[in-house]
Amino acid sequence: MVTTRKRQRRKTTPKRRRPLKKAARRRRKPKASTPTLTEPIALPGDAAAIAAGCYYDQAAAEHVREFFRRFLRHSKGQWAGLPFEVLPWQWLRILSPLFGWRRPDGTRRYRRAYIQIGKKNGKSTLMAGVALYMLIADGEPAAEVYSAAGDHSQAGIVYGEAERMIRKSPSLRNRCLITPSQKHIAFVPTESIYKALSADAPTKEGLNAHCIVFDELHTQPNRQLWDALFYAGASRRQPLLIAITTAGWDRNSICYEQYDYACKVRDGIIEDTSFLPCIYEAGPDDDWTAPATWLKGNPSLGVTLSEESLAHACTEARESPNRENTFKRYRLDMWTQQDVRFLTMESWDACNGAAPPADLAKAPCWGGLDLATTTDIAAFVLVFNTPDGWAVVPYFWAPAESAEIRERRDRVPYRTWAGEGLIEMTPGNVIDYAAIRRRVNELGDLYSMRTIAVDPWNATQLAGELMADGFELVEFRQGFKSMNSPTKELEKLVLSKRILHGGNPVMRWMASNAAVETDAAGNLKPSKARSTERIDGIVALIMALGVATAAGQKGPSVYESKGIEVV
């Protein structure tokens, strides 16, 4: 239960609020009803905050809601021109706790907030209102309020909504000086400013911010801008830094770092009474196709977005694996393993069958060798043309020292896989290519190996040695020209269950990580940059399929026509 303390009213109204209150008396009360619930949702850190002397001030929270209702107008869609009546979740989960909770000295308890929610739930509009409150009605002399994001255009979204709100409000537009070309708003009575920042981090040193709204944190390419702004309010009495975002996919990003921290504060694992977490997301075990799940990431469902539009997007995602992760991240606010999913695990697992050893012994095979890194995993994948489809037999190598580090750090069971014979560990902290050469020669004696596709990166010496051993190698580059056709072929084979991978857990892990990127012409290729974990086995598989399918065509220039050069 939140404890409250009544605020002592001053005998005279502060000058900064007088013009606004006069203006408010000249307008009709809105017809829309106000949520009757008042106190914020309880969080694990509340007890510690109360023990430290913090309290909940209902009047302080209501002052924000009144500002929204009286002076802000919606600028878009069906609500354009109507007063901004905050929704129950916006009030109970964000505005009420953020502005109602106070420290013993009367300043705000919360100094940072992380708000994660699906698209089209009104978070940018809400934050525009918060930015204007901090600019105009928070009582901070010469306040500096900023919108920031991964690029200037994104930073201008919240700012642009705030600018339109001012133009729609008779009470505010005469008191604010707007400079659209500079994305700059000045509130003249208190000499305060609101500005959208560009993404050039070095220019942000020295800001004296009262409030920063960091929009779509998941798009931030690195942590430079975040770090530059993190302490920008150090000299203010009660600064506020708010990160708003939808879920991302890069678990090495500043956004995931903040998301992870917010989850731990929300769950009571970390005690931080100055940090407000607000996360609406579907769970990893939830049925993402079920309407009951959609509400978890969309508290404004039925208000700012319709269930019909979500159902349509879900249908598209079910029909196209490339859209599944987009739906999960943007619509259900779920963190995914990669940007755009290449293969669904349902379709991959449906191909768990293995070809009989006898079929492999007499079937022709082709190989793909990916040596993109010497410190993580190398992959060699064979594909066999059997009566039941393409059979896949993968081999992996990893350096023993770095594998142990990665297992502890990233919880990837390299040593378990090594114990099961799925990965060959080589001594030291780099892969011993001699071990790969020995294994390939053993396989050459065992199978009818035709051609090996090799990524030229890091492979010059080993390729020369394998050629001296009698193998035919072709150079297979990693661009769209060479990768597009076999990438699409792999997708088609998996969906039609014409590939047999035997359920290898290392390959399954890599398949779950695999993301693709598309160029303007619609060509596909696997993207290691967009895949948060290793996909070397999938890349090697695509390379093997590339030379295997090329071998079935006539003409001496078949490799060149596919962007493959003979070594």
User: Which regions have little confidence, pLDDT < 50, spanning 5+ residues?
Assistant: 6-36, 553-567
* Tally of alpha and pi helices: 22
The CATH architecture classification of the largest domain is 3-Layer(aba) Sandwich
* Rg over CA atoms: 29 Å
CATH class of the largest domain: Alpha Beta
The CATH homology group name of the largest domain: P-loop containing nucleotide triphosphate hydrolases
Structural class from helices and strands?
A: alpha/beta
Helix amount: 25-40%
Can you list the strand order of the major beta sheet? Answer: 5-6-7-4-8-9-3-10
Largest sheet: 8 strands, mixed
- Shape descriptor: elongated
For the terminal residues, how far apart are their CA atoms? 73 Å
What percentage of amino acids are in beta strands? 15-25%
Overall pLDDT: 85
What is the number of domains? 3
Say what the CATH topology of the largest domain is. Answer: Rossmann fold
Number of strands: 20
